[in-house]
Amino acid sequence: QVQLQESGPGLVKPSQTLSLTCTVSGGSITTNFYYWSWIRQSPGKGLEWMGAIAYSGSTYYSPSLKSRTSISRDTSKNQFTLQLSSVTPEDTAVYYCARTPPLPTLALRAMDYWGKGTLVTVSS
Asked: Of 76, 93, 100, 103, which has the fewest CB atoms closer than 10 Å, so is most exposed?
């Protein structure tokens, strides 16, 4: 069974970079055709896909966040990371990592395993 666990600071100051790590167990992030995403949910809003990194290392980003989002990975640790720069209080949200199996879509409904989420608050 695949498990994903988000970790990182729960409080970030405005203008700083938000950094989170997703640790994956029960499956390799390099297994062919799987994709690994970051999603967030702000109060009163729905789930927002931020971006993903593929089994190959290729990255994909939401157009609205591309300019300040970076996803990377450490295959030796079976982890992938999220960096969101220049944060504001509007970036306060619960952040999730999730997996997409070999399907021709990265839609949220296609993601089969999710972490439990971690709350990140942006405040001075």
From this structure: 76
